[in-house]
Fold these 2 entries.
Entry 1:
Amino acid sequence: MQAALFYFFAALTLVCGALIILNRNPINSAMFLVLSIASMAGLFVLLHAFFLAAVQVLVYAGAVMVLFLFVIMLLDLKEEDRRKFNLFGIITGVISVAAIAYISFAAIRSGSASVSRTASDIEGGTLPLGKLLFTNYLLPFEILSVLLLVAMVGVILLSKKDLK
Amino acid sequence: MTHLATITMSPWFAQADLDWKTFALWSVVKIVCVVGVLLFFVAYSVLAERKISAFIQDRLGPNRVALPLIGSIPVIGPFLTKLGFWQPMVDGLKSFLKEDFTPAHVRKVYFWLAPAITMIPAFLTVAVIPFGSTLGNQQMVIANLDVGILYTFGIVSLGVYGIVLAGYAANSKYPFLGGIRSSAQMISYEIAMGMSVIPVFMLVGNLNLNSVITYQTGHLFNWVLLPNWLVFKQPIAFLIFLVAAFAETNRMPFDMPECETELVGGYNTEYSSMKFALFFMGEYANMIASSAMMVTLFFGGWTLPWFGLDQPAGNFIGGVLHIGIFIAKMLAFMVFFIWVRWMVPRFRYDQLMNLGWQRFIPLALVNIVVTGAVLWLLAGH
C-alpha cells in the first residue's frame, strides 16, 4: 500500500507541476501549485516526516499560496494571456532547469548510502526535529531567519512610496 | 500486507499493536458517527441561531412547521412545533428542491468547487479532536496525531480557498471584493491565532491534543473549586484565540466578507440553492470545529475535575458521560458565538486589520516571551 501511495502522490506532484507551467491562466497555475504542494505533503507523510507534512500544508498551501492568489487576482490577467514566448525567457529557462537537473542528479548519485534513513532517525517529528534545529543546524537556521527578516525589511522599503 | 500496513500506520497512533482491520473498521464507524453528529449540530445550530436572535429581539422565531402525525400528539407535538424542531428539515428540503442556477458569466469549475472547498476543511479538522475518553477499548478520537494542532491549523488555513475562489469564480464586483477581503482577514488572524497557542504548547510540552487534555486534569493550586484549565493559566492566549476564531469563521463582529450593507452578500451573492446552503453550513461547521478546538485547548476537553471525571473512563457509562461533557462545553461556546452576533456591531475594515496586526500579534509575541521567562524561572535558574 505504501508503494502504491508513493506512486500516486509522486505522479500527482509531477502532473500538477507540469500543469502549473502549461496553463495560460495564472489562477489555474496557482491552484495546481496548491495541489502539487498538497501531494508533496503526502510524500512527506509516507517518509514519516509528519511535522514537515503539516508545515508544508500550513505554510505553503495555507499562507503563501493564498497570498499568491490574492496578488494574481489584483493583477490584469488578460495581459498574461496574450503574452508570447520570447527568446531570452526560453534560453534562461532551459539553462536554469538544466542546472537544477544536474545538481539533483549529482546529489542522488553521491548520496546512495543515506537513502535508508527514513523513519528511525526522525520518528514522528517535532521534538527530535527541534533538537536538531537548535543544536547541529543552529547556524543555518539562524541565517535563514535573518534572510527572511531581510526580505521583510526589503518589502517594507519597496512598498513605501516616499522615503524620508 | 497486514504487517506492512501496521508498520505504516503505527507512528500515527499510540496503540501500535492494534490489528489493521479492526482499526480500519473502528475508524470508519467513528468517522460516520462524528460526521453524522456534526451535520446534526450544523442543522440545529442554524435553528438555535434563529431562536436566540428572536429571543434577543423579542420575537418568536420559527414556530410553524408541524409534521402530520407527530404534530397531532397532544402535548409534545405542539411543543416541538413551537420550538421550531422541524424547521431545519424543511430548510434542507427547500435547499435541495430550489433551482440550482448557474449564472452565465461565472467561471464554472471554480464555481462548482468553491462550496465544497469551504465545507470540507471544517469536517477534516474534527478528526484530531478528542471528543471523549474511551468507549469500550476504543479511544474517542478519529486520529490521535502527534502533530495534532499543526494538522488543524494546516487544514483550517485551506478553508480560505473556498471563499477566495467563490469570489473569483463569480466574476462580478461584490463577490470579488468579498473574496479579497476574506483572504486578507483570514491570513491576518491565522497568524495571531497560531501565535496565541504557542504558550499553551510550551506549558504542555507536546503538540498532541490528548496530552493537552491530560495536562489540564486536576485542580489549579490544589484548590477544589478551580479546575486546572489552561484558560486560567493563559487567559491572554485564550482571548486572542477566541477573537481570532470569530474572525476566521467570519462571524459577526468580523463578518467583512459577507457584509450585506456594503457587499450585497459578499462572496456568495451569485450562489443559489444547495451551493449557497453549503457555504451557510460551512460557516456553522467551522464554528463547531473552532468551539471544539477551544474546549480542547483551554477548557479541559472532555474532563471535569470533580468526581474523578478527569480520568479515562473505566466503563461504558463513564465513556458516554465524557462525550456528554465535551458536547455540553462545545454547545456553550456555540451559544456564545450566536449571542455575540446579535449583540455587537460590525467592525470597520481598517479597525479589523489594526486589531489583528497592531494589537494581537504583538500581544501574542509578548505572551510567548513572558511564558518562556516564567517557565525558565520555575525550572530553577
Entry 2:
Amino acid sequence: MKILRFAAVGVAAALALTACSSDSDTPSETTKPTASESAAAPEAATIKLWLNGTDTPDALREYLTTTFAAQNPGSKLVIEQQDWNGLVPRLQTALASEDQTPDVVEVGNTQSATFTYAGAFSDLTSLYPELGGDKLLPGFVEAGTADGKIMAVPYYSGARAVFYNKDMFKDAGVEVPTTLADFTKAAQKLTTDKVSGFWFPGQDWYNGATWIYTNGGDLAVQDGDQWKGALSSPESIKGLTEVQELFKTATKAPADSDSNEPWVPFNQGKAAMFSAPTWARWSIDLPECNEGVAADDKSDEATAKRTKQQACNEEHTGVFPMPGLDASKVATAFAGGSNIGIPAKSQHQELAQNLLKIIFSAEFQNMLGQNGLIPGNSEYATSMGDDVYAKAAIAAALGAKLTPAAENWATVEGDRILEDFFQKLATGADVTKSAADADKLITDTLN
Amino acid sequence: MAATAPTVAGTTATPVPPARRRRPKVGAYGLLVPASIIIGIALGYPLVRQFVISFQEFGLKQQFGAAPEWVGLQNYKDLLTDSYVWTVIARSVAFCLVNAVVTMAIGMSLAVLMQRVGRSARITLQVSLLLAWGTPVLASMTVWQWLFDTQNGLINWTLSNVLGIESMAQHSWIIEPLSFFFVATVIVVWMSVPFVAFSVYAGLLQVPTETMEAAQLDGASARQRFWGITIPMIRPVLSIVLLLQVIWDLKVFTQIYVLQRAGAPTRDTNLLGTLIYSYSKEFGLAGALATIMLVLTLALTGFYIRQMLKEDEL
C-alpha cells in the first residue's frame, strides 16, 4: 500500500498544479508590434473573411467569393463562419496573431470599441470616402472610430419591430397601439393567466433600452474624458418605471430568461406580442399554419407547402415599429448589427481592401437589403422593398440608437451588469435604488 | 492514530530492498528529465507568465503589441482593497468546503454500499456511477438546465402537477443566490461523487480480511471495526481524495458559468473562477487574482499535503 500511496501523492501533486494553473492561463502570445502595412504588395494569396452566425445568407457569400476571385486573378477568398457566442475572447487571441488572424472580420457593433481602441484594426480613414463616406450609417461609423480614426465600417444593421398575433388582437378587441403608453395598455389587456401580452423576459435589456432611449435617457453618458452611468437620470427612471410596470402587469415571461428566441412562446400561443429584429419573420411557425414539411426537403411539393405556410404565418401575424411618445414618432430602439474591419496583423492589407470595396459596391449592398438586412450604406436602404416588414424595419432603424461608444463598453456587457439590473426590475426591486447601484458599477467599469 | 498505529504500520511497511538505495543517483535523476521538461513547458511556463503579468498593466492594447507597463503590486492592491473580491473569496471557500464535504460523505456511503450489496446490484451501481462520471460536462449541464428550467423544467412540473404544489409551477431556481448555489451544489456533487466512490471502494478492497476476522473474533462490533480498523486503514486514500475535491471545488468554473448564462444574476453568483474569467480584458488583474487563488489553494491544502508527505516518511 505504500507504493500506492506514494503514487497517489505524486498524482495529487501533479493534479494540484494543473488545478491551480488551468484557470489562470493568460494568453502567452505577445506579438511584437510590426508594421505590416509597409510590406503589403498585391501578391496573389488566399485571404480569410470571418462572418458571424448565419445572418449573411449563402447567396451573398458565394457572390463575394466568385467576385473576389474574378477581380483578383490568382487570389482566393475563404469565408469562415464564427459563432456569435464567445466571439470577443476568440477575436482577442486570433486578431493578435499574424498566423491566425482573418484578413477581414465582422464584429458586433457594440463590440467594436473594444478592438478599435486596442489597435487591433487598420486605419480605414483614407478608404472611407470610397466605401460610401457620409452615406454609411453614422452611429455605426462612430462605434468603429477611435481617437479620430475610422477603424471599422458598418456592415449591416437590423432594426427591432414588434410582431403581434392578429387573432389575439381581434379576440381581445385591441388595436395596433400608436403611442408607447398605448402599447403598455394593449399589452396589459392582452395578458391572461396563461398568455403574456408582451413577451418580456427579465434579462432582455436589448428591448428594455427602447424605453430608456425613447424617454430621452441613456445607458451611459460622456462627461469630459470620463463616462458615467446614466440609468438614474430622470428620463431613464421614467422609462424604467414603465419597464417595471410591463414586467409586473403585462408579461408572464420568466425573470431568468434573456432575449433569445422570443418567437418560441409566440409560436406556442403563450405570447401575443414580441419584439425582435425583423428577420424573425422567418422563425414564426404558428401551429395552425404548420404544413409539416421537413426543412431539408427540396422537392417542388415541399417548396410549395413552405411558401403556403409562410404566407399563412404572415397572414396571422402583424408587425409594427414600436411607437414613440406621441403618435407622430416611432420609438428610439436599440440598433443591432455589425461592423467590418481589417485586422492590423493581416498580411494581405491590399487584398483585404479590395474585398471591402466589393462589399460596399452597389450590387452587394442591394443584395443585403433584399435579404432583410439594412445595408451599411443608407443610400441602398430602398432595396429592402416596401412590404410591411421592410417598412417597419426602416421606420425603426431611422431612430435607432447604439450602446455608448465607450472604450470599455464590452466589459459592461461581459460582466452582464444590464442583465442583472433588468432582472432586478423584473423581480420587483426599487427602480431608483437599483438604477443608482447599476450606475455605480457602469461608471467603475467604463473608466 | 495512536490506538491503531501498530496495525497500520504492520500491514503497510513492505521491506525495501537495500540495494535500491545504493544505486548511483544520476541515472535516477536522468529518468526524471522527460517528465520535468513536459511539466516545465505545460505548467511552469504559464505559471511564470501569469506571475509576471500580475505585476504589469496588461490589457488589450498590450495584447495587440503595446509595451506592458510595470506597476508593481498595484493589481494586488486594487483587488485586495475591493470588498467585492473578498465577498467572492469567502463565497468560493464556503462553496468549496460544503461541496467537498457533501461529496465525500455521499461518495463514501456509496463505496461502503458497493462493498455490502450483491454482485448485480453492485454492477448496476458501478455502471450508473461511471455514466455520470463519463458524461461530458457541457452535455450534462444542458440536461440539468432543462431539469431546473423555469417554464418547461421537469422538476417544476413534478412539484406542481404530481405533488400538487401550485406555487412551484413557474419557480425560478437560479434567480436567488442561495437557491442558485443549492442547484450548483447538486450538480457539482453529482459529477464528483463517482470519483470519490470508486477511489474509496478501491481502498476498501485493500483492507485485509484476516485483520477484520481477527477483530471480529476479539469481539469488535461492526461499527467498531469500521471506525477502528477500516477508516484508519483507508485514511491515505481518503486524505488524497478530499484534497483533490477541495482543489477542484475551489476552482469550479464550467458549472457556475453555464448556470449563470442560463439566467442567474451574474454579480451575485460569481465564484473565483468566473470572476477571473470576467477580467478577460485586463490580463494583469486576472493574473493577480489567479495568483491569489493559487496562494489560497496552497493555504487550504498545504497543511494537508505536508501531513501526507510526513506519513510517507514513517
